[in-house]
């Protein structure tokens, strides 16, 4: 993959994966996280969920951890209004610092592996701390061709029971889950489609054209089976 082309397509987008503010609020309510707590957004991207966390937890101190420098700058700009209560650092989400009462990770833990990532985060959690992460999931029933093609590059995808088994293998317990399907994906793909349409009018070179085609094909597959392509938002705690 040409990463320069990828990040050209994915610059100036509101978010870098499916999700919405309601997902964040569900996790905070279910975990009972409130007050002047330390919270981490691991793999925060351009800061969409970090901003929601900061709004929902007005007394908390938040740290966003992100590898890509462009996303770091976007997240810092987005969260500048919160002052020094929100810090965004360029670094590896496998080593997020801490300890935190909550580690939030939207659509990024699979880069580490669910079991591997959770195991590594034990030392980053305060006693009684929580992890909320979203992970690709297969829904019950026969998988249409569009679903199989959509997830072809992630052969490790499994169903809810399979995700729970990976959580258990890390020594954690599942405390709740919520499916991310439909509208939260539109919140990601609609701006991405607009970005693709804009860049197609700029006479893109071959590398950028390939990146545009790849993302457009992904969006087309999602639209063909939008009710059956999902993430599971998992709320877990160490045993």
Automatic annotation (TrEMBL):
Pfam families: Methyltransf_25. It comes from the Bacteria. Signal peptide: none annotated. GO terms for molecular function: methyltransferase activity. SUPFAM superfamilies: S-adenosyl-L-methionine-dependent methyltransferases. Residues 39-129 form the Methyltransferase domain. Keywords: Methyltransferase, Transferase. CDD domains: AdoMet_MTases. This is Trans-aconitate methyltransferase. GO terms for biological process: methylation.
